[in-house]
Amino acid sequence: MKEKYKNLPLRSGVGIVVLNKENKIFVAKRIDNKKNFWQMPQGGVDKGEDFYEAAIRELEEETSIKSVSLIKKIDGLLTYHLPNELLGIIWKGKFKGQKQQWYVMRFNGDEQEINIKTKHPEFLEWKWVEPDKITELVVEFKLHVYEKIQEEVKKILVN
Fold first, then answer.
1. Pairing state of beta strands 97-107 and 10-19?
2. What's the pLDDT band for 9 if we cut at 50, 70, 90?
3. Cβ neighbours, 10 Å, residue 133
């Protein structure tokens, strides 16, 4: 990490694993991503906002999804650091990465509800993938986070 960014804080964030009835996971391709990387819905926590409230808000803002029920809050915060080429660019240069609270949720709605062409769109396209595929699709600097999530989802699906 570049020396001048070392003392930057981590941004508080949330991530949401959305499972459909077939236990496939919702992933989407970011608009600002030139490569073929996909991610699950995630975003920042506003000042004074509860992590769970932030997760519900981010999910709706990014995907229009409202019909979910909580399956599990993943224990602990998962952290990633931005690669050098993104430091000072993402989040107006205020943060060096994110510490995220992740939630696993069941999508209870109809796929017609899913709309990524939102007020401030972040995604180009979306799809459902098998849980073992999420680590093959993610950007490198978030891989360890997605490996942990994959582990947690497997535990849930076994029970």
1. parallel
2. very high
3. 16
Q: What is the pTM of this model?
A: 0.94
25 Cβ contact list (under 8 Å, min separation 6): 17, 18, 19, 40, 128, 129, 130, 131, 133, 134, 153
Amino acid at 94: K
CATH of 3-158, one of 3.30.750.24, 3.90.79.10, 3.20.20.100, 3.40.50.300: 3.90.79.10
Phi and psi at 37, nearest 5°, equal -100, 145
> How far is the C-alpha of 88 from the C-alpha of 91, rounded, in Å?
8
Question: β-pairing, 123-129 with 25-30?
Answer: antiparallel
pLDDT at 24: 98
Cα–Cα separations (whole angstroms), residue 154 to 11, 13, 59, 103, 157:
27, 23, 22, 14, 5
Phi-psi region of 5 (alpha: psi -120 to 50; beta: other; left: phi over 0): alpha
